[in-house]
Amino acid sequence: MNCGCYKEEEKTCIEIVPIFSSLTYEEKVEVAKITTDRTFEKGQMIYTAGDRGEKLYVIHKGKVKITRLSETGKEQVIRILGPGEFMGELSLFSSSSLTDNGEALDKTTVCIIDGEKLKELMKKYPAIAFKVLEELSKRLEKAENLIENLSLHGVEKRLAKTLLSMANGREELVLKMSKRDLASYMGMSQETLSRKLSYFQDMGLIKLIGHRRIILLDIAALEKIE
């Protein structure tokens, strides 16, 4: 379905994605003309490694899990994306095929923007290109932090740092992913994650509520874990 029927009062994906936030209404209409939308069911692949890219995928509704597979078939969760976030951006600047996989975690609507036409708009409106580069810089920093966390820290330190990062200064958090995916993200087994979460709870550091909600009871102690 073509998204050319952009209306300013509606919260379309063009309206909510940060890379288009600085555009005028007329400029957003131009982006809408090169955009189509598609809905994916939970568990459906939006794209897989090896696919030709040349598209920018913007999430309008739902959540998407970005993963890579090792040579042995082990899944590594790279990140979880939600409304307003985008993926496939690297294929805009390279002729290489996609190297990761995008899977819908919920029923998800994605706006798909033609890459070649988007690059033409980037030339016309450099603000779009700068916003993409800004997001790429943030993702690079997160990737470097993830590599450091996986290679330099033990299991308990990794878990503590991840919980603190997800809480982002708050005293509680709600997991955006399953514990299986969280374990993969941190480079550990689901059994190890469950055991360490229970250990943290027994130590009075956290309180587990249901499957997704976690209360941080002692942030200072979590920060000191080595």
UniProtKB/TrEMBL annotation:
Q: Which CDD domains match?
A: CAP_ED
**Can you give the residue ranges of the Cyclic nucleotide-binding domain?**
19-139
For this protein, the record's PROSITE patterns field holds: CNMP_BINDING_3 (PS50042), HTH_CRP_2 (PS51063)
Q: Which InterPro entries match?
A: cNMP-bd_dom, Env_Response_Regulators, HTH_CRP
Taxonomic superkingdom: Bacteria
Ranges where the HTH crp-type domain occurs: 153-220
List the protein's name. Crp/Fnr family transcriptional regulator
Its organism's taxonomic lineage begins at: Bacteria, Bacillati, Bacillota, Tissierellia, Tissierellales
